Amino acid sequence: xxxxxxxxxxxxxxxxxxxxxxxxxxxxxxxxxxxxxxxxxxxxxxxxxxxxxxxxxxxxxxxxxxxxxxxxxxxxxxxxxxxxxxxxxxxxxxxxxxxxxxxxxxxxxxxxxxxxxxxxxxxxxxxxxxxxxxxxxxxxxxxxxxxxxxxxxxxxxxxxxxxxxxxxxxxxxxxxxxxxxxxxxxxxxxxxxxxxxxxxxxxxxxxxxxxxxxxxxxxxxxxxxxxxxxxxxxxxxxxxxxxxxxxxxxxxxxxxxxxxxxxxxx
Length: 266
Prior knowledge:
Structural class: alpha/beta
Helix content: 40-55%
Order of helices and strands: EEHEHHEEHEEHHEHEHHHH
CATH class: Alpha Beta
Strand content: 15-25%
CATH architecture: Alpha-Beta Complex
Strand order of the largest sheet: 1-2-3-4-6-9
CATH superfamily: 2-enoyl-CoA Hydratase, Chain A, domain 1
Number of helices: 11
């Protein structure tokens, strides 16, 4: 383990061929602001270059994967007149690309809540295993934002444009079991079987033919993600436009005040 990569917000450990990257702010449902993304990118870079790592596991501490972006941080920046949306979306795109393109098999270990960019991360992994009762949502629209992390591209390819439009524009919740049924994740199991199931994936892919896995990933990426980077580049401008809207400000304030937002369409 390279202890220099471990922070109070991201834990990093290597054990028996598996690298564990754990989001570690359970009291906040493990948000993923830009600085956390940077830490995760460092961890993934270490994994790529380490012969000790044969599979990468991504999870959240405290029984939840991640609630996505740090909405309270968004409000604080708005009040100070700070807009770092473009930079943050670029960092997010870098993280998701690194997660998708790393040569090692990746596994998302999904418990509890997973929202926003958490869904982008789960879908960027090779395998995503969740509790049947996990609470999932593409929550971007609920704070007046567009999806990022290339999710419009990957979700449309996975479930088709009709269901993708419904999930992204409604911002509705769905379960891990429904995500499995729709092909959004690899598997959904009862909570009491989750760790056992994930450990089977970890064992298999940390003891298998690593070169073949890397080449399979390269082939899959080459035929399925040719427009992905272009999509993420367009997200930067789209998210910036949303960040300037009155509806985004209202949605953030309503979220923190636990009330229904009143949108003006501006």
